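BUG-437 | component: ligand-complex export | severity: low

The export step for nicotinamide-adenine-dinucleotide jobs runs without errors, but we want the raw record kept on the ticket for reference. Input record follows.
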Amino acid sequence: MNAEEYGTLMPLEDVLESRQPLTRSIALMRRACESLGLSQVVTANLVSPQEVRVFRLPCKILGKIVTLWGVLALHNNARGPFKGGIRLSGDVTIWETVELARLMTLKTAVTDTEFGGGKTGIRVDMDEMYRLFNRQPPDPEFDKIISLDAVEYYAQATREIFASHTYVPAPDLGTGPDEMAFIFNETLDPASVTGKPEGTHGWLPGRREATGYGVAYITRRVMEEMLGKQAAGSTVAIQGFGNVGGHTARYLAEAGLKVVAITDAHGGIYHGAGLDIAAVEEHARARGTVAGFTPAQPFTNEQLWSLEVDVLVPAAVGNVITEANAPDIRARAIVEGANMPTTVEAMDVLGQRGIVVVPDILANAGGVVASMEEYSRSLSAMKVTRDEVFATIEKSLGTAFDNCRERMREKGVRMSEAAVGLAVERVYDAMRRRRMT
Ligand code: NAD
């Protein structure tokens, strides 16, 4: 196969889909709009993206021209610059990118962060790349060449949007601080991108840990204020031990909670007395999974859903709590560390069973709060410490949590409805004042 043939393997038709699926955020936003008495036209304006750009991205990688396809979804900027990560993955589609951008609009609004919502998806099929370049997976060095090249070409092609702060990107699946450095290299403006590497112009201490720190903070608040339990000694189970799950586990254990079960893509572990998280981290660093850690019993992702714990934190992938397993859940609350781990149908089942669901837009918003801190510090060139960043996360998420609780009481709704309702109200208000709807 030569480089020219590669482009034909990824036709535009694969990226362009004709009809927007009814996603979780659309369903929740429509419900919120209905209860706010907003018209169908206003609802459509709130749900619809402002702009979607589908682009061909020819990249010269290791001497070959490889054509990638990408999507830039600019959902809403009524409250501030479009904000959201750059995802490199083999299954990127327009509607998934739009859904993730819409989620960012809700996340920034509920935490009252002065950003809007955006997202980039670049379709990179790594299996195809390994074949094209005759490499054997896994080859982390090769993976890095691909992601750095893709983002460098994307930064060149989209420079104006970054340099003008129209859209402020950050890392997402398949990208990290190294790729963000390439965006800075292109704009030479530290405020044009967040999630920059440690020690570079405008980097933020605590940015890496921010999402997990926020999930742990919200879990403690739920435990004490909604479940009426002392946080110390309460039990938690976590799916995922990556950036979000790993830091969540660490900060929960530091606060005295017992993390009794953790699962990841390769298996899981259970220890009723509470896992030693520092030791699990060391094990996972060496083995690439929590599975096999001792002293702990082997445990599966399926077992996780019916485990009797105070709080369950899905912090890995989407759509894992469904209508099928929601009736089995024995946790008293679910704190969504991942994006959209619970389907709308499952949310309804859990709501009827009196199980609290703290939605992603509140629970995992610590990262975007830290991003605003990084953006504003990059604009002002003022330094900030990790503890100050953590204090900002507690303040922003704490206020959002209080606002949602108040709305739950006032309107007699569930936490997820309160959070989406609050976000929709704020975005609508800004759009109305700016004559955007
Ligand atoms: P990551 O790649 O660092 O870690 C993912 C973890 O999930 C790994 O432990 C992996 O083994 C596990 N996993 C993957 N597939 C699984 C499966 N099918 N079953 C069980 N476990 C599985 O990713 P991350 O940055 O921790 O992100 C996790 C989730 O949180 C994603 O949904 C992401 O979109 C969301 N999120 C991340 C951030 C952030 O700042 N990193 C912010 C907001 C939301």
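Assignee comment: Attached the raw record above. The longest helix spans residues 386-411.
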